Known about the structure:
By secondary structure, the chain is an alpha+beta fold. It has helices at 11-14, 26-34, 59-67, 146-151, 176-216, 256-277, and strands at residues 48-51, 56-58, 88-90, 94-95, 119-120, 134-137, 143-145, 169-171, 222-224, 230-232. Strands 2-1-3 form a three-stranded antiparallel beta sheet. Strands 7-6-8 form a three-stranded antiparallel beta sheet. A two-stranded antiparallel sheet has the order 4-5. The relative contact order is 0.06.
Amino acid sequence: MGCDGGTIPKRHELVKGPKKVEKVDKNAELAARWKYCALSTEKLRRPIVACDLGRLYNKDAVIEYLLDKSADRPNSEVASHLRGIKDIKELNLTDNPAWEGERRNTKGDRYEDMHCAMFICPVVGLEMNGKHRFCFLQTCGCVFSDRALKEVKTEICHKCGDPFKDENLVVLNGTKEEVGKLREKMEEKRAKAKATKKPKKNKVAETVAKPSDSKENPESTETVSSEGQTSTQNGGDNSQPVPEPPASSSTKVVTPSAATGSKRSIQTMEEKSETYKSLFTSHSSAKRTKDQTSNWVTHTPYHF
């Protein structure tokens, strides 16, 4: 079968060898990491946010993921470490004046430079296309190149002037080793946050328990006499004796204002009940007197 018409098969067509490992284009890989959202795989557009691991996202995509964390969502493993809005930081990026966007090649007849990036470093001017290492500050969200941070060493942000430390620097789209270090740093930060929350809860519990203890231990409380003199009952020396309360002190004293208030409430209740009863024909106000009744008997609902 085959080989009709004088065709001669070659060796690679007949003998199947091991498959060659497919190499990923570096330019395509860099464009996917620096120009597209890591969660929704859509083009990055403002507002752009980053997580503690240095991945770039569209803020809308992150909010949709936090509202619906179902397993059916694509690329849900990329954002599995995100628990809320506090785990991301909105980036303060500097636009690249040389980037024209999609307007430049609308017809498809012009050369499109894949290395041209949307954003640049505000200090050195390097394009954020993946060829250079970039970092962002967790305090203010400003983005700079690693070269700018090494050349101009300072503890104040070059763009907004906010102070920062070396611990606040996060590498964007780093290597596997850098991502592993950032993950360890993120877990340590979360563990410290949990440890600080527990003592606060214990303090609140102690403050709630203190007034209850004072109620249970009447010995430490102070008694106030009728003349305004106070004396402690902890066994200390009392400068002035406290008169004992009379035997009838346990009985409740009804003030005239309370009595008038109770009488008014009873009167209002009686008035309400009377108005409610007057709605029915069986009430005395609905019945006819002898003068109103006729001499003959008629079949009407008002005859009693």
